[in-house]
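Worked example 3 (structure in, sequence out).
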């Protein structure tokens, strides 16, 4: 009876609180260590493989003790699914959970090597359009050793295309190929996100890394769009670096950078480099953001050798979960938990991977580290800079103008035909030249991108497939058609030659949409 009356009083009190003014609610919130509870946010959770279950338990323990309001939907992914024959590492039914919650907190998984198994990360990112990968990389000096105590860089990586489109073929006995795809709409999305992120979080500069001195069309497009969009953000400094020297500068002087935006492969490699030189890859969390869905994770792997030993550092996944809390509108919880984590690091309570004699005070396991963070909830670091998420953006950074496709005139002017051939290139040219027709000529033969005919060098190393360019004379102002290309392929086949691939050559408003051969 007493308990019943007490429950009734609780309900009455809640009703009174709901009628009070906003100012009183604000005062009530400031006077209590935990925020007023609201409805829980549904999220999909995957415990992963190796150390995954341990670090997920630790992460959830911390953020829930901090007051996170979560309705968890658990799915199975990774090694068990691969071994069941699901080549993508996830059951189709599990995608329904992601489609429903739109928020995915994922521990690392183990992907079996070889055998056609596809990366679950890549599959999830592309299936749900998670085009922006966000990786904050900052140092925690003097409590975690680093040569770069002032480092505070955010890597914004394009997440869906580039070489990670995963389009690969074996062409011949000698040659494998992987297609690098850079699109205008994909690049516009990621570059605009980088500038929106910089503006929302008070960053001063956005830097672009590409290799457009070599890949003039693909990386050239990325750089061109970066310049176009940068012009819209007058309040933010912008710059471009060739990726190799940019990477060297990032490794040597990371404090020269603020937000760095890159195509997929460069971003994947350099975000790991940045995390490591900041202190440890094990400390870095990652957000994968799309227009209607998001995935949060650590950037490290499943480390199966460390599984079940209560050794793993949960910090990477935890910091990914912090990004998740901000994303779902629980920035107050994110701030509370993140500051407690910073205080724990500052107090020298460290897992084995970051423990250093003379700096660290106590070496702890996974569970003990989580408990130490919970014990410090409500506290802030005294040396490290505390976090303040009160100004976290309320609108989605994915908002952008509608994509407008170019109206350039597109004309077919020839084809690159890749032909399997192991004899001398002059003999191949002699066979091909009589086959040209419909105004096209055999303009060039290249091998591994290097021109070998006409006027090739005998020192050039060649393999068993050559690119043979049939094209209308440059500047002729004419175009061809697919019937002419099909007829060309028919003549090549009748001549006893084997073509393994074809790429159409197009002009756009009269300008070539294809590169020359090296040495041409």
């Amino acid at each position: 009876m007493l308990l019943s009356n007490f429950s009734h009083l609780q309900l009455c009190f809640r009703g009174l609180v709901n009628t009070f003014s906003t100012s009183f609610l604000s005062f009530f919130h400031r006077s209590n260590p935990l925020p007023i509870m609201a409805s829980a946010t549904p999220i999909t959770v995957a415990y992963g493989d190796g150390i995954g279950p341990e670090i997920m338990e630790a992460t959830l323990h911390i953020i829930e003790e901090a007051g996170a309001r979560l309705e968890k939907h658990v799915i199975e992914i990774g090694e068990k699914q691969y071994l069941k024959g699901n080549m993508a590492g996830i059951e189709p039914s599990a995608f329904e959970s992601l489609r429903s919650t739109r928020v995915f907190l994922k521990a690392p998984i183990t992907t079996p090597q070889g055998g056609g198994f596809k990366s679950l990360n890549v599959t999830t990112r592309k299936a749900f359009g998670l085009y922006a990968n966000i990786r904050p990389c900052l140092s925690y000096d003097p409590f975690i050793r680093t040569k770069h105590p002032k480092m505070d860089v955010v890597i914004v990586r394009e997440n869906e295309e580039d070489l990670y489109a995963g389009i690969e073929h074996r062409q011949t006995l000698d040659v494998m190929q992987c297609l690098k795809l850079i699109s205008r709409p994909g690049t516009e999305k990621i570059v605009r996100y980088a500038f929106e992120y910089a503006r929302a979080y008070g960053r001063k500069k956005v830097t672009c890394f590409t290799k457009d001195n070599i890949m003039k069309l693909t990386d050239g497009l990325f750089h061109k769009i970066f310049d176009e969009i940068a012009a819209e953000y007058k309040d933010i400094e912008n710059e471009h670096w060739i990726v190799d020297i940019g990477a060297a500068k990032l490794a040597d002087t990371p404090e020269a950078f603020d937000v760095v935006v890159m195509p997929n492969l460069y971003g994947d490699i350099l975000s790991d480099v940045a995390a490591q030189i900041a202190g440890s890859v094990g400390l870095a969390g990652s957000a994968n953001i799309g227009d209607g869905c998001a995935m949060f994770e650590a950037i490290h792997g499943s480390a199966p050798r460390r599984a079940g030993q209560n050794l793993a550092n949960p910090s990477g996944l935890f910091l990914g979960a912090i990004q998740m809390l901000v994303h779902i509108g629980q920035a107050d919880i994110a701030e509370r938990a993140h500051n407690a984590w910073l205080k724990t690091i500052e107090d020298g309570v460290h897992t084995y991977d970051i423990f250093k004699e003379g700096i660290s005070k106590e070496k702890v396991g996974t569970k003990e580290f989580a408990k130490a963070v919970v014990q410090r909830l409500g506290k802030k670091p005294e040396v490290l800079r505390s976090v303040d998420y009160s100004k976290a953006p309320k609108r989605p950074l994915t908002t952008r103008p509608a994509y407008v496709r170019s109206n350039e005139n597109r004309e077919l002017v020839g084809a690159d035909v890749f032909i399997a051939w192991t004899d001398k290139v002059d003999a191949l040219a002699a066979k091909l030249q009589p086959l040209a027709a419909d105004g096209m000529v055999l303009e060039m033969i290249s091998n591994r991108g290097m021109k070998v005919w006409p006027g090739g060098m005998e020192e050039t190393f060649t393999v068993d497939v050559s690119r043979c360019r049939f094209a209308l004379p440059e500047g002729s102002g004419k175009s061809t058609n697919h019937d002419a290309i099909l007829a060309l392929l028919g003549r090549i086949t009748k001549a006893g030659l084997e073509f393994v691939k074809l790429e159409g050559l197009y002009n756009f408003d009269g300008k070539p949409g294809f590169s020359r051969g090296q040495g041409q």
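Notes: DSSP finds 15 helices and 20 strands in the chain. The longest helix spans residues 2-19.
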